Amino acid sequence: MKTLLIKNLAxxxxxxxxxFFTALGPINLSFDSTGIVAINGKSGSGKSTLINLxxxxxxxxxxxxxxxxxxxxxxxxxTNTTFFNQDIGIVFQNYNLIDEETVLYNVELPSLxxxxxxxxxxxxxxxxxxxxxxxEELFNLKASKLSGGEKQRVSIARAIVNDPKILLCDEPxxxxxxxxxxxxxxxxxxxxENTLVIMVSHNLQITKQYSDRxxxxxxxxxxxxxxxxxxxxxxxxxxxxxxxxxSWINRIASSNYKRRIKRNVFSSVALTIVLxxxxxxxxxxxxxxxxxxxxxxxQLDFGSGSVSKETSTGGSGMLSLTKSSRPDYENLKSxxxxxxxxxxxxxxxxxxxxxxxxxYDDEIVxxxxxTPIYSFDRQHIDRSLIVDGTLPDEAAIDExxxxxxxxxxxxxxxxxxxxxxxxxxxxxxxxxxVTNTEEYVNDIFRLNKKIKISAIVExxxxxxTPKIYYSYLAIEEYCKDYILVNLSTxxxxxxxxxxxxxxxxxxxxxSSYSYLLFLKNxxxxxxxxxxxxxxxxxxxxxxxMVLTDSLFNFLSVAEYGVILFLVIxxxxxxxxxxxxSFTSFSEDHKKSAILSSIGASSDQIEExxxxxxxxxxxxxxxxxxxxxxxLMKLANILIxxxxxxxxxxxIPFLEFLGIxxxxxxxxxxxxxxxxxxxxxxxxxxxxRKSIKGELQSL
Length: 698
What we know:
The chain is of the alpha+beta class. The chain folds into three domains: 4-243, P-loop containing nucleotide triphosphate hydrolases (Rossmann fold); 256-297 and 552-697, no CATH class; 305-542, no CATH class. Helix content is 42%, strand content 22%. Strands 14, 15, 16, 17, 18, 19, 20 and 21 form an eight-stranded mixed beta sheet that branches. Helix 3 packs across helix 4. The longest helix is centred in the C-terminal third of the chain and has 45 residues, at 543-587. The two termini are 38 Å apart.
């Protein structure tokens, strides 16, 4: 079995539609395990093409090459799990050194890629450099600083550092003077005693002097194959699988990162901004409902309202008509879900509406709403909302509580703090009672009182409404003692305003078509409002719940908006990272091609750029965590200022969905996926040329 066997090998290049140029073959060759085989021929004859195909830096159009009896296609170029790249060394005509790396490290690389330790690789590299005559003072010099002859010798040292079984040389002495040419050829001759050397050279004198076999190629075909010195074929091949080592990958990635520091910083900043936005959005969504509820509890009348009964009166769809009426009182009382949670009270709003006349020193104060709460006792009042003053007596009719919005309005009108000041209520409502004989009996409900502002409460500042809160129990007692003179005279019995409203027909205007409901205990507001308890046509209406629903809807719309903005930002960041990765890889095509030619697998080369991007990713995570705390505080300050909602955004770094540290883990996973995608996909699209094409184009 031959060391190297070529069967029907051909290489053609397209030069137009259905037209091809045949650069080589088809040819058949076999090679023994030692000796120097010279490939001669004019420029363009196909000799370099043959070397490139054997080196696997180009791919054949047809045919196959066998190494130790195994076809090339069986050697995995992506993972290099075989011994292929341990057994072949390449000396390039154009050196193909990595210019920004030192001479010593350029020679170490094939050994490091093979899997040798750093110490062993360095020892082997020093030995190879000394063999080709490179002085020690040049070892730590960057390859870009060398002369052409020095670069050629370093290229040879790199090719032989792993003691290859096959050494491919493309014009190995082309850049050397006569003395160095002799030294290098003597070295190659010595190497050929245990190695197969396939050499392309224009120097016919060297070819005849040192070669054991000469193959001449013309127009892609073999025209001469002369054996000068017959060699014994003793196959030697590596039995070890290639080991994986990442030390050289780390160094190349680190070098790339430093060389492109500005671009990498820009990528990190872009990802940092997006991650910071992600934290804020997740913190907003995660804590939104809790914060809104807590903010909306800052309403003295939270959960209180009116309940009416609606029945359909005809029509359908958008044109359907409904009629509101006051529900049956006994039915409400018998509904345990309602009666256990709410005080069920007569609604006096038909005779005492919210928009009554309120004066200060005979001057009307507009825009104040006269709003009932059940009582001023501690069970019905959240005393934590009081920011100034003291709680009035439980059923005081001449004391009230105002909210901060009302306090600001009154202060603007009177020019001083309204606490303990007196307002005047002047209100009257005329009602008509139709008797059985269709006679009309008119009475007037009056409420003329001086009321003291005993306390001020701080309520949510979202859509603020100036309110004066009075005790419903006080008005109820007032109505129970207040007799309708005319109606009482007509019926020849005392009838109070309480009786008048209570006994009114449920469809009468004076019934307000509803009953008032007040929470029996303000702590019940912590339970999410359950509208299901109002069934069978019952409809609950509450100013505080309307405001709550409005705030929920507003922030739900805002949630969709920020999510959409975040998605757009993520796409933008992904594009930026992808463009950066594509640009970086495009800049390094030559370096990648060189690494591939000396044994690096596709996976390893991708890992170099993936590491560079991962550094950006993890740096972005650290920066974004630091920045997001500041942004969260600033955002919460602004939100509290304009919406009066505390801690609307709380980033769940410690616990998310009930699992500790889940959110940071998800962030790391997301960043790894984003970075991997934005790095590997552009790289895969940029791999359009063969290694040969990359080496020749740069």
